[in-house]
Known about the structure:
The first copy, chain A, has about 550 residues and is α/β, with parallel strands linked by helices. The first copy, chain A, folds into 3 domains: about 25-230 and about 240-260, ANL, N-terminal domain (Rossmann fold, 3-Layer(aba) Sandwich); about 295-440, 3-Layer(aba) Sandwich (Rossmann fold), CATH 3.40.50; about 445-540, ANL, C-terminal domain (GMP Synthetase, Chain A, domain 3).
Amino acid sequence: MNAINPYEYGMPREAANFQALSPLSFLERAASIYPQRVALINGRQRQTWGETYARSVRLASALAKRGIGLGDTVAVIAPNGIAMFEAHFGVPMCGAVINAINTRLDAEAIGFILQHGEAKVLMVDKEFAEVAQRATSHMPNRPLIIGIDDVEYDEGQLIGELDYEAFLAEGDADYAWQLPADEWQAIALNYTSGTTGNPKGVVYHHRGAHLNALSNAMCWDMTRFPVYLWTLPMFHCNGWCFPWALAAYVGTNVCLRHVRAEAIFPALAEHAVDHFCGAPIVMNMLANASPELKALKTRPVKVMTAGAPPPAAVIEAMESQGFQVTHVYGLTETYGPSVVCEWQDEWDSEAPEQRARYKSRQGVRAPLLDELMVADPQTLQPVPRDGETIGEIFMRGNVVMKGYLKNPTATAEAFAGGWFHSGDLAVWHADGYVEIKDRSKDIIISGGENISSIEIEDVLYRHPYILEAAVVAMHSERWGETPCAFVTLKPGTESTEESVIKFCQHHMARFKVPGKVVFCELPKTSTGKVQKFVLREQAKALA
Amino acid sequence: MNAINPYEYGMPREAANFQALSPLSFLERAASIYPQRVALINGRQRQTWGETYARSVRLASALAKRGIGLGDTVAVIAPNGIAMFEAHFGVPMCGAVINAINTRLDAEAIGFILQHGEAKVLMVDKEFAEVAQRATSHMPNRPLIIGIDDVEYDEGQLIGELDYEAFLAEGDADYAWQLPADEWQAIALNYTSGTTGNPKGVVYHHRGAHLNALSNAMCWDMTRFPVYLWTLPMFHCNGWCFPWALAAYVGTNVCLRHVRAEAIFPALAEHAVDHFCGAPIVMNMLANASPELKALKTRPVKVMTAGAPPPAAVIEAMESQGFQVTHVYGLTETYGPSVVCEWQDEWDSEAPEQRARYKSRQGVRAPLLDELMVADPQTLQPVPRDGETIGEIFMRGNVVMKGYLKNPTATAEAFAGGWFHSGDLAVWHADGYVEIKDRSKDIIISGGENISSIEIEDVLYRHPYILEAAVVAMHSERWGETPCAFVTLKPGTESTEESVIKFCQHHMARFKVPGKVVFCELPKTSTGKVQKFVLREQAKALA
Lengths: 543, 543
């Protein structure tokens, strides 16, 4: 080894040879080279990349004029549409952080997020006016509220100090936005579903957003000019970084307010869509659509799915209809998908059922995830690749979050030992593919949404007659999974399933309400812990 | 703006969420997920990605055992083959820097490079034994010489302390190679052709190599499993970073020792090649191949070309034969190509000649180049986008070199004002596309008018009998300078100076018409570029 390293002499990082990695570069490039290409389609609206860039710059400028900048949070409650897309660029262009909030949350949960994230601005689509108003009504530092008036949507109510278009008009077209000085700067804030108490705010930085956008596009063999249908909410891990990937690949974003087969199939046909993402429930919906709707699909479409292990039968049904399914896996903490079930040629010759089974495994590291392993949660020793030994999935690398906002303890726990602890339990197959067997935190995934069993139990425990409660996932034709509650009543009290469900409806978002309530004694271990695996077996029989 | 930025609190870079960007990750991934896929084809030899990874690890280990590590240079003089490919991974895996040397250089030039780069190890293919021996014979610190015995090549002479396979055998299969601690660490050293004095050593770092590998693949719409024919030498900007891109996309590298039409067409057919790179001279060679050879090409092939502005006529000829040409531009200092002539749909409807003219422009920034401009070399003020005003091309960003080895003065000059000075003169079109008019030193100034030698060459290439053409300045009593054309005729054709001049008079302004036409073989550099300084000397004698 050289005593003095000549390669470290006189070659520092400087303006000519070092720039922060940021997905904002993708937008500037798309707009400068392909200004006339269509970036966004929303109903009858069409918007080019040139226009999208100009409007994003105005948004950044308008925010800056209101004093918003480095370290500030701009929250958005909106469906996949033009404003939501532009916020993915305009907000970070002024140095701020975009916090896209799950529109299915109740006012209490949204209120918590706005408080914890210290949102200075809240952009709200008409459809979510009511919940937003309730969420902000008691806030000590109420954010500036900007109403989004989607001309394609006649319902709802426009609220806020001013409307989005008026706000854009406040901005300067020639605002000198800049790349972040440091690519480690935060670009987005995404709240987890809060499996253990309050949700945690996962922070993404520009470097990771840039890299995972490219990585997910590579997983999919994406080439220039994709036509992408937005069935996946952008509030889920920033749409798995696809708003940024679409800018990098100069694609067309086809927006969809409500994800229904009746809207998806016509959109596929009308816009020559070739890509979309969705939870297995979306695939299930399409696989079970009417023959009339299905007949609208005339060309191959690539589908990326994640959020729950997709049932082999659903994959099989989709592939038989000419959808090419790529199964990916990840968490909010890994910018969405960071693991991909890469296809092996030799699987082509297998029977459809076996092929679908291969495809339902979570897979291997995506192109730009650095490392992936299944290991003992305590020792971090990798488990044998025998397809049987259960361990926890660990990731590390540039597409793992910056950390949890204002929660160094949780960040330190999540990164203990130099790896991100996913909390998902899996086996490691001989070929290096990971397959999830269980969720260590008992997450229920319903319609693509993570539901914490603990959170529902918390509510049940607040019911005056309920002594004990345990919630597990139950199979649902419609949602993939739905919560199933097992409860023990207090002695001398009486209740009904209907009454318990009604209680839940008052205290949680609709999609979290248990589909079934069973009255029984809870099975317990010798140390008094509820044996959820026993309940899961019972739930299976009930489904 | 927030007084205290909560997004900078308690979220440092650590092992779980930060890893150095490096193309070495691509190899590890290809080998772990697709160990059985063919990585390399060299004559009758086949080598998988699993084997290539294992051998690269052994190479790194063997080097480390000889004391080679951080900051050390390992030089290679070899054709595109297995050892050269493996060196692109094995050398940096032990922390060292690969210096792939142009095999067409003479002993003196190679000797200078080995001395300046302080090579500790020199890997030499049999074919280049003699020049390597002469180059090293007088070195005070002679490097360890390792002979490469390509079993597919019967000629030449094996030299060195030991042979490459024996050296690999010294390495451990389980050597714990590591990613660089800092992605700014050097990975490669490439010497410029040294048009003005001694060549300069351009240093690449892991970050830039990673990013330009992806950027060039994106330019080409590359998807997984490309079959790539090596017509471009790997000693040329590390094959434009394609050894690393091929690992990222798990492709097959088809090696070719000597670039001839007689070898290229059969290789396209035999291996179902779908991609290759080459200077315009390679395209010219294929465009002028025999009908029998051309008949071997039965499927579409993507061609990436750079190294000189491709004459429109050559592009047109290639495209008419089903080669899809992507024209890119760059310099050794920008990791090879970093500018791409992105195609616009509306050009499809133009006549073939106009299409080829569009395609012969250098274009716009490649996906991962940060900025590109044409500007005044002194003031760095961008020129108007009028397609007429000549300025210098400037780039900045992550795919600009780390700097020149042991030459901070040249580095500072190259980066003056925060931009990399390319030395190429160009105009900027209204659509943002850059078009090179000449190297600074290749411009001909006649009667006060700037004449682009490229423009004249473009016309000469359209002459039916002209195979190759090069134009330089010649002294003129009257005009100061006048163009002097050197041309090579196609086999079996004849022409006269008078007839060529008449052809020019029909196709260009009078003041641009060459004052002299010389019929000859064009002198070329090792990379196939015409040696204009030789022609200038000849033109001096003719004036």
